[in-house]
Specification:
Blueprint: H1 7-12, H2 16-26, H3 30-38, H4 44-47, E1 55-57, E2 69-72, E3 76-82, H5 92-95, H6 97-103, E4 109-116, H7 123-132, E5 136-140, H8 141-149, H9 153-156, H10 158-171, H11 182-187, H12 191-219, E6 226-232, E7 240-247, E8 250-258, E9 270-275, H13 281-287, E10 291-295, E11 300-305, H14 316-332
Parallel strand pairs: 3-4, 4-5
Antiparallel strand pairs: 1-2, 2-3, 6-7, 7-8, 8-9, 9-11, 10-11
Helix pairs in contact: 8-10, 12-14
Amino acid sequence: MERKDSILYRATKENEDSISELLCNLMREKYVRDIFLIHLGIPQEIVKDIKFDDISSQVDLKENGKPDICLENKDALIYIENKIGRDTQLQANQIYSYPNTLKSSNKKHYQMIYLIPKGYKHLAEIDTVCKGNGFCKKIFWDDFLINVSKHEIAESNLVFRDCFRFLENKLLSKSISIKFKPEEIVIMYNAKDLKTANNFFIKLKQVIDKADKIIVEELNKESKDFSHGNWCFDEGNENEKGKCLNYKGKQEIFYGLNLNLVPKHQEFLLSVAIISKNIDCKRMEDLQKEKEIFQDNECEWTYIKMDKYNLTDDESGEAFAKNVVEIIKSLLL
């Protein structure tokens, strides 16, 4: 699978694919790449010739599956299967098809690496495969991260530090103390992403700023309970980029970009959120599949998905405002 340029895709996925993507992109730097690969048990003479362009994720082997990470050049073919949870499923093709594909590759060096947590429930199956195939190897996440940390990669670069600490917290079952904002995630990929992210948020803020005046004006034609709220574009709101709306004197409504429900519910990326206690029970029932519930530390929010917009359109602010007004009216007025 070609690594995607979509900022939100990479910023919001939270599964084995995202860990594989993080590992792949950390290996852009040769110094880091060599350390990672050596501690994955790949021979030094193979490691020295592996370039970043040789590394792919989710390569499609058709009916034989999709290895999480694939390293391939003219001399070597290496698959890395990454498991992040002790109860994560182990598919049959991962212990049968992958080794068979490697054996039939005609490469000078081929290798199968299982990167797994200690206590993994399918450890016995992996041990059996490794005993029967000398080119198969298991590596425990704990050992890998501890060995890599000895090289002080995290101290050489701010992005490496945060990414490596994230991996440690995610895979060594420690409490996660670092949260990535979308703007921070893109830095580890390439420079043009940072510019794209910045332009996107600037345009989004312009659209919402234009829409906000219309929204309050239209709602107050039917009720004087609405007034302008605060922006949610500062560092304290990494999961929401938009505007709050006061309802009966309190900030009870949000509209804009929402990362609380993605990737599971990506259709709610642009949404209106209302504190649930404000919505009549009958109207809540009428929403059915059009809503999703999110519980934060203080209260329950009901999210209603918005229409999709081309933010570069000159009339996007008016269309955005109309959509928000229609949603709020249907629930509160």
